[in-house]
Model the fold of this input.
Amino acid sequence: MRMTLQFLGATEEVTGSCHLLSVDHEHLLLDCGLIQGGKADELRNHDPFAFNPESISAVVLSHAHIDHSGRLPLLVKSGFDGPIYTHKATAELCAIMLKDAAMLQTRDTERVNKKRAKHDLDPLAPLFTVEDAEQAIKQFVPLEYGEVTRVIPHVDICLSDAGHILGSALVELWLGEGKSQKKVVFSGDLGRAGMPILRNPTLVDTADLVLMESTYGNRFHRSWTETLAELKAIFAKTVNESQGNILLPAFSVGRAQELLYLFHLYAKEWDLGRWKICLDSPMAIEATRVYVNNYPLMDEDFKRFTRQHPGQHPLLSNVEFIQTTEESMALNDVHKGLIIIAGSGMCNGGRIRSHLEHNLWRPECDVIICGYQAIGTPGRTLVDGAKELTIHGNSIKVAAKLHTVGGLSAHADQAELLRWYRHFEGQPPLILIHGEPEAQRGLVEVINQEPKTKPQATAIATHGDKLDLTALPKLAWKPA
Done:
């Protein structure tokens, strides 16, 4: 039986997750995500797939974030008509996120076409439409954690909680039958132990091969205690010294809900009663409702709190939902006393752009960066110390105080990645995906220093690499 695995996305970069598993004549995709970053990176989303979409039998999706799910409508548009297996909460979130992504594609294309028309250039078509997204959503097959499912002939999967966002899953795959069977574990995006709302990432005992994300492979996050103290200090200083607003660019799924929970728990301690807290993102608002409706997936502390305080849901208690564009624009006329949580997390779209345009140049305002910023994004530009930022064609001076709170990251850091991998028995071969080269090299160096838990083999996936799975536990690479 022929079994191969080819790496076609999130190789030596963080976004665009996509991996092609072939067993005999059947083909399965692990994730199908959008590439995010600068304009040159995003243009790669328009490149043809490295495979025939009509040949794909099924997709297994780890979670709803767009860099893992965002090209599914394009895959469907290109001829894929098979099932998309994922956790049921991910299916609910994707029903929101994929349609939103399609509307953004259409809007951005319309903007580009206006410029092209001035130069007598033919109009471009969007990458995919809302209709493509709706068709993709129809092809979702929702699963529960712990449910073993046959997805193509000779391939069974089981999803377990990855602790990254609601519904996020690490995937165990059993390939083949009998003595020749191989087990591959795909981490998806791993979360962190002890984070609010979500349960800890599941530990897996056995594998013949581990595919592990490495976003923060060379970094250590602040402890949760230190992170809370850092946030408290930011708010205390801002209350006492500033007469401005606080902006929090936040991913609509995961980070936004985490912030709402923290603002509820620490409302008195952080003196948040002086502020009006606004969630300015229709998608984040819809996602919050999905979180509210999936109460059983939360961690024990969250469930205990809601039992002890009936009628006071911790994600809804002290926030104002900003739905319409007019309501959002009105916030720009308020010069102090606002905490605005708005998408997108990397400042490359969404309503946060408008709020940055109106507040970034004001030294009395604060911007809190609380998530990963991909190379080429405006958020990364701010973190790297830019003095100006171009927004809607205007150059905006960076005068607001910038705070980077890494402890809020939903990704495991180096220590947490090592802890998750070292739970596997027998140190199975390890391939790093979903990380920038510097982070991956740092992780490889550290993981190979401990003889007792050193992997049988370690590799960093590069684009197009193809692995012969029948040769495991050795890593047998073949050119694409």
The mean pLDDT is 92. The CA atoms of residues 192 and 412 lie 5 Å apart. The first strand starts at residue 3 and ends at 9. The two ends are 19 Å apart (CA to CA).
